[in-house]
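Still learning. Show one?

>
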Amino acid sequence: MRKFSSMLLCLLVTGSLLSACGGNNNAAENKKGNNAPAVTNTATDAPTNAPAEDDITNRKVTIKVHYPTPDLTEIRTQEDDKIKRFQAEYPNVEIVKDDWQYNVSEIGVKMAANEAPTFFNTYATEAKFLVERGWVADVTDLWNKYEFKDQINPVLQNQFIIDGKVFGVTQKGYVTTTMINKKMLDDKGVAVPSMDWTWEDMLNTAKGVADPKKGISGIAPMGKGNEAGWNWTNFLFEAGGEIQKIEGDKVVATFNSEAGVKALDFYKKLRWEANAIPQDWALGWGDAVGAFQQGRTAMVIAGSDGVIEQALNQGGLKPEDVLTYPMPAAEKGGKHTGVLGGDYLVINPNATKDEQEMAFRYITFDYFSDKGLEALDATLQQRTTDGKYFIPPLLDYYSADSEFGKKTKAVYDKFDNVYQYSPDIMALLDGKPEAQYNTQDYYATMSNEIQELFSKKGTDSKTQLDNAAKIVQEKFFDTIKVQ
C-alpha cells in the first residue's frame, strides 16, 4: 500500500523487528543478520574465457523501465540521472520509459496484450498472486550470480522467495506506524502518550484532541478504498488475529474471530464513544495524510516516510512536532504489531533472457554502490539548498548492519536535514507480513464493513465479520488450490 519512493534508504532497525518478522508471523521463518535466505541454485557461473559474442554487452537490448508518474518531478529527475549513468556503462541498451503503475485490475490485460514494462513495481501482498498466474519471471539464476545477495535485507526479500525460487527484488519496506502531530496535542493540553502505548491510550489521546465543531479529529482511520481494510488489519493483528490459514490445499478465512470482533469494537469506540474520527470519514490514503499535513487530524496510520514527507516539506510542520510511534498494543505488555509491507521490482516473464538480465542489472544498478552513495549525498545537498528535509524509510533493501548500511549512515550523519526516528521505536516495532492470498480482495471486502460501522450506530461486529468472511471465502479463497 505504498507509493514509488525517491530513494531506497533506511535507519537501523534492530531488536524485536527482525524476530517479529521471523517466528512471530505467518511467513516462513526468516533468518537474522546479513545472510539472505537460502535459494535453490540452478545457475552456473559463465566461464571466464567465454567468446566475445556471448557477452551480453555486445548485443543490442531494449528494456522498458518502470518510471515515476509526471507529478513526481524530483523523483523523475533522479531516475533520469540513473538512466544516463546506466547507459554510460551499458551503451548497448536502449531504454524506454513507462510510467504505468501496478494495478491488480490492470495487470492481466497488460500481460495478455504484451504491454507490461520489462520490469515493474508491485507490493508484498502480490507475490503468490503474480507467481501463480505466471506474470513474473523466475530470476533465481540471476539472483544466485548477484554479488551482493547476502547483504540484501532478508526480512523484506523473503516475501518474494517462494518454494526456494526468487521472483522479485526488494526496494524498501515499512512497518505500519501511527504518526502524531505533537503540536496539536500541546495546543489542547493533551499529554503525549508513552511510546509503549495501548489502544486505551490511543482512544484517550484521540478523544482529548478532537473538536468536531471545528472540523478537527483526534485520529483519521482510512475509510474508503482498500486502505480502510489495510488500516484496520493492524488492530486485528494486535488483538492476536489472523487473516487466513492453510488447511491442506485450501485457504480458509479466519479474521471473523474473537480477535476480529475486539478490533472492530475498538473502531466503534473511536467513532461512536469518543467521536474522534473525521465527520467526513470516507478518507483514502491521500485524504487522511492530507488531513494530517493540514493540521485537521492529530493522528494517522500509515507507513511513516510518506506521511512525514508531506507534513514537513509540504505542510510546513517541524520535525520535533511530527512523532513516529509504533502501532499501539491492544493491552499493556502486548505487542506493537503493524502490517509489514513493501515495494518490489519484478521482471516480465514475456521478456527475452537478455532483456530480463539487463532489467535485473538496472534494478540493482545503484544497490551497494559508491555511485548510489554519491547520488544520496547529492540528494541531501540539494534538499539542504532547497530548504527541505529528507525522510528515510524505516526499512530498506539492505541489511541495516551490512557494510553498506554503515556507509549510508555515515552519509546521513553529515547532514542536519535528515529526519531522525526516535531510537525508542526500534525496540518496539513488531512487523507482521501481509497475507499471501488475495489480500487486496480481503482489504476491499473489509472496507465495506468499516464504512457500515462508521455510518450506522449499533452494528454487530461478529455479524459484520461473518458476512465479510463468507464473501471472501466463497468469492476468492475457494478458488485457490494451494500447491
User: Anything to note?
Assistant: The chain has two domains: 56-173+341-419, 177-339+430-479. Residues 1-38, 40-50 have pLDDT under 50 and may be disordered. The chain is about 40% helix and 15% strand. The CA atoms of residues 220 and 316 lie 20 Å apart.
